[in-house]
Design a protein that fits this description.
Layout: H1 12-15, H2 18-36, E1 44-45, E2 57-63, E3 66-71, E4 77-79, E5 82-83, H3 85-94, H4 96-108, H5 110-131
Antiparallel strand pairs: 1-5, 2-3, 3-4
Bound molecules: zinc ion.
Residues 49, 51-52, 54, 71, 73-74, 76 line the site of zinc ion.
Length: 143
């Protein structure tokens, strides 16, 4: 990308209607309350840095009641304490958002999402990989 070009980042709420974004946000917070934070910290585990195993990390920020810690060794940002795998599994089976909203959202906004989010991300990824073909790189794909 030339230095004079402006990089445009399109996010989910840029392609959703305001009404749909509000509904999705309401369900998301309801799920946090009913599925993830339904017990007083039970089913949460404290972890060290998942990238390097480092035990030196500090609280960086809190978002939606999740504590994000920054590893002092490798600068990885991670959630700790975090829900157990069993608790995270309940997000997909018990979540109102996943059950009622997610697939409706995907169907309604599929073309906009593909054109404005998926393709630019794939292009950006391929540009980075192709420019690093002769270098040793590490890629972590989550989700
Ligand atoms: Zn680390």
């Amino acid at each position: 990308m030339a230095k004079t070009q402006q990089k445009t980042v399109v996010r989910e709420n840029d392609i959703r209607s305001d009404e749909f974004a509000k509904l999705a946000d309401d369900y998301y917070h309801l799920d946090l309350k009913n599925v993830i934070f339904d017990k007083d910290g039970k089913d949460f585990v404290a972890i060290d840095c998942p990238a390097c195993g480092g035990t030196d990390h500090e609280l960086s920020t809190e978002i939606h009641q999740f504590s994000y810690r920054l590893c002092e060794i490798c600068d990885t940002l991670f959630v700790s304490p975090r829900p157990t795998p069993e608790k995270l599994g309940r997000w997909y089976t018990d979540s109102e958002y996943v059950g009622k909203i997610r697939f409706q959202n995907l169907a309604q906004h599929r073309d906009q999402r593909y054109a404005n989010i998926v393709l630019p991300r794939i292009s950006s990824f391929l540009e980075k990989v192709s420019s690093s073909l002769n270098k040793s790189i590490t890629i972590l794909d989550i989700g």
